Amino acid sequence: MATFLYKLGRLAFRRRRYVALLWVALFVGAGVAASTAPAAPEDSFSMPGTESQKAFDLLEKRFPDASADGASARVVIRAPEGEKITSADSKAEVAKMIAAVGKGSQVAGVEDPYKAKTVSKDGTTAYTSVTYKVAAPELTDKSREALTKATDKTRDAGLTVETGGDAVMAEQEMGGSAELIGIAISAVVLIVTFGSLVAAGMPLLTAIIGVGIGISSITALGSVLDLSATTSTLAMMIGLAVGIDYALFIVSRYRAEIAEGRTPEDAAGRATGTAGSAVVFAGLTVVVALSGLAVVNIPILTKMGLAAAGTVVVAVLIALTMIPALLGFAGRKVLRRKDRKKSASELRDPNAKPKLGTRWARFVLRRPLAVLLVAVVGLGAVAIPATSLELGLPDEGTAAPDSTQRKAYDMLSDSFGAGFNGPLMVTVSKDSGVADAAKTVGEKLAKVDGVVAVTDPMPNKGDNTAIMNVVPETGPSDHKTEELVKSIRSSAEEIGTDTGSEILVTGQTAMTIDFSQTLDDALLPYLGLVVGLAFLLLMLVFRSILVPLKAALGFLLSVAAALGAVVAVFQWGWLADIVGVDQPGPIMSMMPIFMIGVVFGLAMDYEVFLVTRMREAYVHGASPGESVVTGFTHGGRVVAAAAIIMISVFSGFIMENDDMIKMMGFGLAVAVLFDAFVVRMAIVPAVLALLGKSAWWLPRWLDKALPNVDVEGEKLHKVLGDTVTPGAETDRELQPVGR
Question: Which pTM does this prediction carry?
Answer without folding.
Answer: 0.80
